[in-house]
Amino acid sequence: MLSTSSHVYSELYVHLNWHCKHDRPMITAELEGKLHQYIQDYCEKCKGVRFIAIGGIRDHIHLLAQHEPFDLGAWVGKVKGSSSHELNAAMGRGTLQWQRGYGAVSFAKHDLDGLLKYVANQKEHHAKGTINRTLEQCGIDEGGDDGSEES
Hints:
Strand content: 15-25%
Mean pLDDT: 88
Structural class: alpha+beta
CATH architecture: 2-Layer Sandwich
Radius of gyration: 15 Å
Largest sheet: 4 strands, antiparallel
Distance between the termini: 41 Å
C-alpha cells in the first residue's frame, strides 16, 4: 500500500513509456545508466510515488511505478522535462530530447513479476520482435513538443 495521507488508500500501478524526439536513438550506452538513475532518483523524491523499475532501448523508456491518485500526465511531463534538462546540462545541449506524448497502462499487483521481466528485457524483446504492442503504445504527436529540453 502507498499512502501519504491516512485518508487515502491506493493500489494504483502503472506502466509508462515515452520516446525520444523523432524516435532518434539518443539513449546511448553512456547516457542510459545516468538517465535511468536520474529518473529513479526523481521518482523516489516524489511524494505519493513508488519507483518499481525502469528499462528501455536507444529510442524510448519504460517505467513501472505505483502512485496515489494525482494528475498522471502532469507528473510524466515533469519526469520527462527534468530528466532532459538535467542530462543536457551535464552532458551538453541536445544530448536528450523527448517526443511529445506517452503511453500509460494500468496493471494489477499480481501482474508485477511479468512486467518487471518485460521492462528488464527490453533490448531482447526488440531484437527478437517479441514486443507487447499494448505496452509499446504512446501518444506520439510529431507536431509539438512537451516542454522538455529541445535544441
